[in-house]
Amino acid sequence: QRDSFRGRIGSILLRSLPPEELEASLFEVVGLLNCAASNITDGERDELAKLNLRAGTKASDNGAFDTASVYFQAGRDALGSRGWEDDYSTMLDLCSDGANACFLTGDLDTMNELIDEVLSKDIDTVEKYRVSEIKVKSLHAVGKVIESIDAALDFRRQLGLPTPQKKPASKFTIAREYMRVKRLLKKKTAEDIANLPELDDERQEMGQRMNELLIVCAFQVQPTMLPLIIFLLTTTTLKHGLNPSSCDAFAGLGMILCGRLGKLEKGCEMAKAAELIAEQPGMRRITSKTIFVAQSFCYHWTEPLQDTVTPLLEGCQKGLEIGDTDSACSCLVVRSYCLYFTGRPLESIQEELEATIEVMTQLRQDARKMRIVILLATVKKLRGIDTEAGDEKMDSLLATAAATGNFSLAAFVNSMKLEVFVIFQQWEEAIELVQKSGNVRLALTSAFNTVRYTFLQTLTYFKAAQSASGKKRKQMKKCGTATLKVIQGWAKNGNVNVVHYLRILEAELDLLQGNAKKAEESFKAAITSSRRNGFRNDTALAHELSSSFYKAKGDEYWTNYHLECSKSCYQEWECSEKVKLLNVSFNERNEECGFSKG
């Protein structure tokens, strides 16, 4: 009786309230009506289902997805088993929007039931788009990246659109598709691209969205497929017009031009085009992601790395505002690594990383959280905290990467393991890792991690050559010289972040070639440029390598001077474990010279 009474109150309010007051009290009115749902007529059930759909949509718009899922479920219950026959359109919306709400609240079982229900119906492919999109996103979210790629490619085929094959792409295929993009682009500027007409083809728009989702998956498990997807996004935009996915097209094209083709100016122009498109009406959902791609993969090639930190934080904030938690957390990941690479104090980085892990756990961002876990384990190892647990975590992540075919995850782990080996001067472990890790630079695409890894890889080759002889010495020198040329190319094209890297590597190559005078000049230049650009971690490394250089020459004064300078820089960086090792080394030096530890 109480439920019936509440239902009658809800009916009275529904009939008597003016539209604006009903909208303001929608949740309360629908809640009252739902109390009496078991005692209403078939006609009233249709109306109640529509009201629950309306309430669920409103709750979703407000970010209250738990509440929204309750309304969507109530709407489906109101229609009952004949919902698809009696009110097919409302049932489709209730299932599709309900699946999205369940995905965002972590109710994956109900989500999968709703997705399967819609996909099983004999309806047009276009009407299956929303649940197909959720399926692709959810598979990726739970680490089923291959299945996510399959789902996205399958939906594009159902739409009747050109679809790339899920297999490694040859260099010839990538070059051929790039030439098609180049012909369509002609001499278009960023402004020309941003002024293209809007896309008005529904199927093309859905296909573009699937390509947008494919980029993230290919980045992890099929890096050679990534350029083909970006080229397809770009050519579709140039032929059919702009939509939010076009931002991914041109930011992604900028990433390829900068990182793989060395066309830095053109790459940054394409990133600018993406930003201009994102500023247009109707593009709000893509703003955070555009900032992420442009700052993470394009602008660091020509601008100081420190300049990316603030925009990435802004990108994170914009993502959280619009509910794009994927891009928000991606911005946080790259920002954290930039803070590390630019030599920010490790204690403050550790605190921020630990807070970030808590946030990503709440947001169920497991894939991105793994990148933060990798960096946190590295930072703690450099500070001498939980080192064994950190090593076990890194090994566990490598095992996960191998089991799932996640090349990107493996590349992140190996690049940071190499970071530790170099800082601790463990050159045998470093060269072993470099030789067994495969093409890490390809898996890291155009991120600054690629630049950093290439520097550490080259330094490792030169150190291996210095300690070897004969054929092995020649081989290691050849490998190091090849990767050095890559860095020299970046510097020639205006990459300000590699200048001190280049000076360190040139010094080590000079040593390898027996040119001590030139090596001394290069070490001085490396120290000056790394200090001037604020890279205290690399200033510390340059001083330590200089100390080794003077030690080999038998110059006691400059050996100790650079060792002290290195220790001071590592202390500023709060790399306490390294400071301990340098203290041991310094005490040993004093004992060799006949001085007491006091």
| Structural class label | mainly alpha
End-to-end distance = 89 Å
Question: Beta-strand percentage?
Answer: under 5%
Total of DSSP H or I helical runs spanning 4+ residues: 32
Task: Report the strand count.
Answer: 0
Mean of all residue-level pLDDT scores: 92
Largest sheet: none
Relative helix content: over 70%
Give me the oligomer status. Answer: single chain
Uncertain runs with pLDDT below 50, 5 residues or more? none
As a whole number of angstroms, the C-alpha radius of gyration is 29 Å
Shape by Cα distribution: elongated
Model description:
The protein is mainly alpha-helical and 598 residues long. The protein has 32 helices and no strands. Helix 17 (287-297) packs parallel to helix 19 (325-341) and helix 28 runs parallel beside helix 30. The protein is elongated. The mean pLDDT is 92.
Using brief descriptors, characterize the structure shown.
598 residues; mainly alpha; 32 helices
Describe the structure concisely for a colleague:
This protein is 78% helix and 0% strand.
SSE layout and pairing:
Layout: H1 2-16, H2 19-24, H3 26-35, H4 42-61, H5 65-79, H6 83-86, H7 88-105, H8 108-119, H9 129-141, H10 145-159, H11 171-185, H12 190-194, H13 202-221, H14 226-240, H15 245-259, H16 264-278, H17 287-297, H18 309-322, H19 325-341, H20 346-362, H21 366-382, H22 387-404, H23 407-423, H24 427-436, H25 440-443, H26 448-466, H27 470-492, H28 499-512, H29 516-532, H30 536-553, H31 556-573, H32 576-592
Helix pairs in contact: 1-3, 3-4, 4-5, 4-7, 5-7, 7-8, 7-9, 8-9, 9-10, 9-13, 10-13, 11-14, 13-14, 13-15, 14-15, 15-16, 15-17, 16-17, 17-18, 17-19, 18-19, 19-20, 19-21, 20-21, 21-22, 21-23, 22-23, 23-24, 23-26, 24-26, 26-27, 26-28, 27-28, 28-29, 28-30, 29-30, 30-31, 31-32
